Amino acid sequence: MVIRVYIASSSGSTAIKKQQQDVLGFLEANKIEFEEKDIAANEENRKWMRENVPEESRPVSGNPLPPRIFNDSRYLGDYEAFFEARENNAVYAFLGLTAPPGSKEAEALAKQQA
């Protein structure tokens, strides 16, 4: 399983830049392996991302904007979905990964199962 984060290296939007940095920074800080896919510098990445964001997750008009997160080819969500998972200490579940022992998410899961 490979976590793929689709980003735009040359976005004019400060909000998009901040969201991308937030996702990438969290993954790096928690030592979660991922691939960064730049849709601004690589047409294939842009095309693949746009084709693989499900219809219900697309904007009413225009194309889906980064950051978009996938586990292999399975669409996980956008920044809002990631942020909600992070707020609920459920990022590993959101990413389809097992939470490491000692993490807040693993502790919460252990309490639920007890």
From TrEMBL:
InterPro entries: Glut_rich_SH3-bd (IPR006993), SH3BGR (IPR051033), Thioredoxin-like_sf (IPR036249). Monomer. Interacts with PFN1/Profilin-1. Interacts with ERBB2. Interacts with ATG12. Interacts with BECN1. Interacts with translating ribosomes. GO terms for biological process: positive regulation of cytoplasmic translational initiation; proteasome-mediated ubiquitin-dependent protein catabolic process. This is SH3 domain-binding glutamic acid-rich-like protein. Belongs to the SH3BGR family. The keyword Cytoplasm applies. GO terms for molecular function: protein-RNA adaptor activity; SH3 domain binding; ubiquitin-like ligase-substrate adaptor activity. Keywords: Cell membrane, Cytoplasm, Membrane, SH3-binding. It is found in: Cell membrane; Cytoplasm, Cytosol. Appears to function as an adapter protein that bridges proteins together or proteins with mRNAs. May function as a ubiquitin ligase-substrate adapter. Additionally, associates with translating cytoplasmic ribosomes and may promote the expression of specific mRNAs. The keyword Cytoplasm applies. GO terms for cellular component: cytosol; nucleus; plasma membrane. It comes from the Eukaryota.
